[in-house]
Amino acid sequence: MIKKLPLILIALLCLQANAQFTTPNTGVTWGLDDLLANAPSALTFSNGIYTLSQNLTIAENDTFVIDENAEIHINADISFTVAGNFTADAAAITITATNTAAPYNTITFQEFSNVFLRNVKIDYGKGIRASSGNFEMQSCSMSYHKQGSTASSAIAFSQGSPIVNNSRFTFNDYPALSSGANQLVSAIITNNYLEGNNISNGNRPQINMGPSGPETLQIIGNTIKGNRALTKTGGISAASLLGITNRVIIDNNTITDNRYGINVQGATSSGYIRGNIIENNNTENLPNLGGSGISLSASATSPIMNVIASRNQIRGNLWGITVIGQARINLGNTDPANLNEGKNVFSNNGNGGATYALYNNTAFPIIAMNNCWIEENNSPTPQQVEDVIGHQVDVTTLGFVTFTPYGCEALSVPEKNISKLSIYPNPSSGKFTLTLEENGTAEVYNINGQLVAAKKLMTGENTIQIDLPSGIYILQTKTETRNFTNKLIMK
Residue 8 pLDDT more than 70? Predict the structure, then answer.
């Protein structure tokens, strides 16, 4: 005769077999100490460190809050899953592996979860799977993550408009941020620092985004520094390969030492690429495989790709800008219906002994007015400009590039007349000094582009006092001869 085990014993055996704990799904709000009291076999505390040794799930009706400084270690292959709400917000929170040589499993935020992270250091795991669009990360860092079973980057997004701001992503095995080819993600990625990601050296960029859908993917104000030993790692890619709408704003980033700078793919792609500094993205050094400062490509003729590029500084890449297949770009146009100021600056982009500021590898014309084609030559002849542009003049099947008017004088002034700007201290607690060589104005914008402060400036030192929440702001300073854009950090 087979005896039946008591229900309590069955429950205990299941808990041991699955090594997991799930919150009760009754609307509870727990902190670390509540979890410690209710799940002592899952979470322990010793010498100031919390250790998670069983898989943990926050149920869909429950909330988990970390609002005090804490250090949390997670054992090898242990998972943390949130179906409900999760907030980690204190001066310093660390989530790391118990043994840095044995990463914990992917942190998963499920479809309907709500997530807010601030001042959290997340290291030595297998990345974050953010299936929720209600995801916000502020002033965090992620380093040394391996590929997970559901995350092929430090953070893999699935939907919505997640926010990642003022955070650091360094030395992860795969890209820092990504989304899938068939997922609509209009992420807002602003003022972050990325360095040396994609250590596995696969054919991936550090920011590897799929289509945005009807909203707009915004990649603004980031620094993306490569490792020259990683010859396959690109800077930014925003691609729509399945015909899904893809709207992009890629502005004011600094992209250096990657395989390429910015890559936008797909005929359904449209948007702006403005004010980026794109330098020395040539690590693979194979011009037939990449190395462009900006590359646009499309294989379909409908709809027509519509990308506007202005005020980019493109130097030292194998190619300046390449336009491929059915892709289209507006590089400067005085036509009011297609107005674009141009003012892109090119210098020393080349390979095989030749310089290529722009290569139009399509059959379509490109309007590219008011650009500085040879930065080191303020007054090039038309033939000298012609020599750095590949188009119909060189190959009859290619589209013609209209590059006049042009000239670097319109984009800058002689060095002796350039007004200089000094900001100190930066970061600031609200009081800082701006030093200018001529009168001007200063405007401060938040990350959403809203004007939050404005001041008149006089020649010399100007003491500025503004009361703003901590975070990253954009300071735009205008004088009679020069405009400056700087990050302003409020502590």
Answer: no
